[in-house]
Design brief:
- The protein has 11 helices and 10 strands.
- The chain is α+β, with helices and mostly antiparallel strands.
- It has 2 domains: 108 residues, Phosphorylase Kinase, domain 1 (2-Layer Sandwich); 215 residues, Aminoglycoside phosphotransferase (APH), C-terminal lobe (Aminoglycoside 3'-phosphotransferase, Chain: A, domain 2, Alpha-Beta Complex).
- It has a 6-stranded antiparallel beta sheet with strand order 1-2-3-4-6-5, sandwiched between helices. A two-stranded antiparallel sheet has the order 7-10.
- Strand 3 and strand 4 form a beta hairpin.
- The protein is globular, with a radius of gyration of 20 Å.
- The termini are far apart.
Length: 345
């Protein structure tokens, strides 16, 4: 809850209009709720609506020009609706609004999952010991394994068939070129390497697309339990090792140092947490998938994160967002490109 803040002026919406629309879907809602904004989101915007007897979470796109395939509220809603019955860690979605007269954009509302989300650092008053931290790290691995074992037919409408790796390399390269600003590297060497060295898909399964500790909700009252997984914006059917590589782009080891370590947004550096290598080895042991060299997936994960950061940096530079959290994203793009190229040099 310490991630909540007042709604930024540029991210405000018509609360009365949302409440009136929600009353038509959930008639028992009483007076107008209070609204707060979760600070952590860098893509879609997330808000907490607090009613006298319940709390709801609202998700909507940011204002301004967006990538054509991003911020699809209907897609995100449907994926969670389909997965809830086979993956209980998905939040229960309640209502999808596609009427632009309400707030000018699609949005959806879901139940809030009670629990703790681990951000950059654990709270100073936390009682988490080494054993609990080790358990949390293990749950991050086994939760991803559990998701990847779901029958992909549950999301058959989102399955584009073989060639996922190739589509991802081409798609993220296209997005980077479209979002380029004069102050960042063109990364053509990196994109060419990914194109030439791409492997065939190893499997096709349900993937999350943004698996990070700060998208996981834990019950920490006793031994840690994973009770929820958030942010299904990029979920689809695809190659599991691509999902793992994307996840590990955020996983800062305790032995990392310098500017890369400063990018850390989750407590993956704590003693007891697995290193990236331990994460990979444990994941492969549990899934029985073979991978002799993880370099391609690691480099892809870094490049994909680079594109996400650059798309936001382009919005920031054009004035479509003034969120101060994005003010150093141009430097971050330089850092990530340099790190990725260093892996292939």
């Amino acid at each position: 809850m310490n991630d909540l803040t007042q709604v930024r002026s540029e991210d405000r919406f018509d609360l009365e209009a949302v409440h009136a629309w929600l009353m038509g879907v959930i008639p028992e809602l009483a007076s107008l709720p209070t609204v707060e904004q979760f600070r952590s989101g860098a893509s879609n915007l997330t808000y907490l609506l607090t009613y006298p007897d319940r709390q709801l979470v609202l998700r909507k796109p940011p204002f301004g020009t967006k990538a054509a395939s991003a911020h699809d509220m209907k897609r995100e809603f449907i994926i969670q609706e389909k997965l809830k019955g086979v993956f209980p860690l998905v939040p229960r979605v309640l209502a999808l609004c596609q009427d632009p007269s309400v707030i000018g954009a699609d949005f959806y509302v879901m139940e809030k999952i009670p629990g703790t989300i681990l951000r950059r650092n654990i709270p100073q008053d936390s009682t988490l010991d080494l054993a609990a931290i080790t358990t949390i790290g293990n749950l991050a691995i086994t939760g991803l394994v559990q998701l990847h074992q779901i029958d992909a037919n549950i999301l058959a409408d989102f399955n584009k068939g073989p060639g996922y790796v190739s589509r991802q390399v081409d798609g993220w390269s296209r997005r980077y070129r479209a979002a380029l600003t004069p102050d960042v590297p063109d990364a053509e060497i990196l994109m060419n390497w990914l194109h030439v060295n791409q492997p065939h898909d190893i499997a096709s399964c349900v993937i999350h697309g943004d698996w990070r500790l700060d998208n996981l909700v834990f019950d920490l009252k006793e031994d840690p339990i994973l009770v929820g997984v958030l942010d299904w914006e990029m979920a689809t059917v695809g190659d599991p090792l691509m999902d793992l590589g994307s996840a590990l782009a955020y996983w800062i080891d305790r032995n990392d140092d310098g500017p890369f370590a400063d990018l850390r947004r989750q407590p993956s550096h704590l003693p007891g947490m697995p290193t990236r290598e331990e994460f990979i080895n444990r994941y492969l042991e549990l899934t029985n998938w073979a991978c002799d060299d993880f370099t391609f997936y690691e480099v892809f994960g870094l490049f994909r994160l680079t594109v996400i950061v650059q798309q936001i940096w382009a919005r920031y530079q054009s004035g479509q967002t003034t969120n101060p959290a994005f003010s150093e994203f141009g430097s971050t793009v330089h850092l990530l490109v340099t790190r990725a190229i260093g892996k292939i040099s």
